[in-house]
Write a structure and sequence with these properties.
Blueprint lengths: L4 E6 L9 H9 L2 E4 L1 H4 L8 E4 L8 H5 L6 E6 L8 H8 L4 E4 L4 H9 L7 E4 L17 E5 L3 H13 L6 E6 L7 E6 L14 E5 L29 H11 L6 E5 L5 H9 L4 E6 L5 H10 L6 E4 L14 E4 L8 H8 L5 E6 L2 H14 L2 E5 L2 E6 L2 E6 L3 E7 L2
Parallel strand pairs: 1-4, 1-5, 2-3, 2-4, 6-7, 11-12, 11-14, 12-13, 14-15
Antiparallel strand pairs: 7-10, 8-9, 8-10, 15-19, 16-19, 17-18
Helix pairs in contact: 7-8
């Protein structure tokens, strides 16, 4: 397949910053595609120009009509670092692309700050919810963030301050590599004026936890109080054991069947930033609760499906892991789950009633795997003293589909 679509990473210095090979691709193209600010960096020479609309993906079909010509897409820095390259490769196939990346904003920022990129968390809030930042807020963490616009700075500052990280150091980097480059440093809890701040800036954050900071590890087992719930939730100790059996892995998909407040699917996604999850819940009054918890705990991408299993599972993408937190006694549920799960996938089910426990015993006899009894007691006041107050024991069945 001919490589008809060039993708060139452009910096603030325009053509002057390109290598000879990259510059040749730009200058020899019949059609130029890019954002308004990219196209403005090139002198007008009569060639056809296509500016990205909003949403950008609407232009892809038109770009495809020019396969018999040389098309060059101007991207920001590295096209495959939260850039347009990923969308182009997915739509046209990587074999159609010639890619010459430039320096990413992360590389430029790390060079300005003297930070080691392998010790930094990188993320984009460009066209993405601010709540994605929540799970990255950790004591002493260093974050490099691609900003949507100047208002992103204010949103990040407010979120950090609300979590007790108002003393975090902010560094805003604008127009890196160009004549208008500017670096401004301050604290999250300072008043950040939006006037004069450039759009598409980059933000570096050194997280500093104050004495009242709310600390939330990405390890499974958040405090129960971190969730809004109606009492029906997998308790902290059992939740940690359940996530251990489910084994979150990069890019894998979880079905959380009988999601309740969404705690299992949320912590599955928090454990590994590229994990995906579908929370299936039959009670409509819990859907807003799941969505609110997902937003507050940094997993706004959690997919929520309303309906009763097994019918609600029909047509969903096959999962890598399934958690059955409710409805184990429903006819046909286990068979559907076992058939849907991918080879090597994990199925974990918890039971608290004798009837559902019997189902787990039967499945264990047929499929193998492990049966575990989880009994947790918490210290509680007993008059002027303290004693152990037991939670309801949980029987857990876990099995790997070989």
């Amino acid at each position: 397949m001919s490589r008809w679509l060039s993708v060139v990473g452009l910096g603030e210095d325009g053509l002057d910053g390109l290598s000879p090979a990259a510059r040749l691709l730009v200058e020899s193209a019949d059609i130029l595609v890019g954002g308004a600010r990219h196209l403005a960096l090139l002198p007008e020479d009569g060639r056809k120009r296509l500016a990205w609309p909003s949403p950008m993906m609407d232009l892809l079909p038109e770009i495809g009509t020019y396969r018999d010509q040389e098309v060059c897409v101007l991207a920001t820095g590295d096209p495959f670092c939260f850039g347009v390259g990923t969308a182009l490769a997915k739509h046209f196939g990587h074999d159609a692309l010639r890619v010459v990346p430039g320096a990413s904003a992360f590389s430029l920022a790390a060079a300005r700050l003297g930070w080691s990129l392998d010790q930094v968390e990188t993320l984009s809030l460009h066209g993405r919810p601010l709540s994605l930042l929540e799970s990255f807020i950790q004591p002493e963490a260093r974050l490099l963030i691609l900003s949507e616009n100047a208002a992103t700075l204010q949103g990040v500052a407010r979120l950090l301050s609300a979590r007790g990280f108002g003393g975090s150091e902010f560094t805003v980097l604008e127009h890196m590599g160009g004549p208008k480059e500017r670096i401004v440093t301050g604290r999250a809890d300072e008043d950040w004026p939006l006037q004069g701040m450039a759009d598409f800036n980059s933000l570096a954050v050194e997280c500093r936890a104050g004495p009242e900071a709310v600390l939330r590890s990405r390890a499974p087992g958040l405090p129960d109080a971190a969730y809004h719930h109606d009492g029906q939730m997998t308790k902290r100790e059992v939740r940690a054991a359940t996530l251990s059996a489910l084994m979150p892995m990069p890019g894998q998909l979880l079905w959380d069947v009988g999601a309740g407040c969404g705690s299992i699917s949320i912590e599955w996604m928090r454990a590994e930033r590229h994990c995906r999850a579908v929370a299936i819940e039959r009670k409509r009054e819990r859907l807003a609760m799941i969505a609110g918890n997902a937003e507050a705990l940094g997993t706004p991408g959690l997919e929520i499906v309303t309906g009763e299993a097994p019918a609600a599972l029909e047509g969903l993408e096959p999962p890598d892991a399934i958690f059955v937190g409710g409805g184990a006694t429903r006819e046909g549920l286990f068979d559907l789950c076992w058939n849907a799960i991918k080879p090597g996938g994990r199925l974990v089910a918890n039971a608290v009633t004798l009837e559902s426990e019997q189902i787990l015993f039967t499945r264990h006899a047929a499929l193998g795997g492990e049966l575990t009894r989880i009994a947790v007691s918490r210290a509680a006041p007993v008059g002027p003293y303290h004693g152990w107050r037991p939670l309801m024991p949980v029987t857990q069945f876990s099995v790997v589909k070989t």
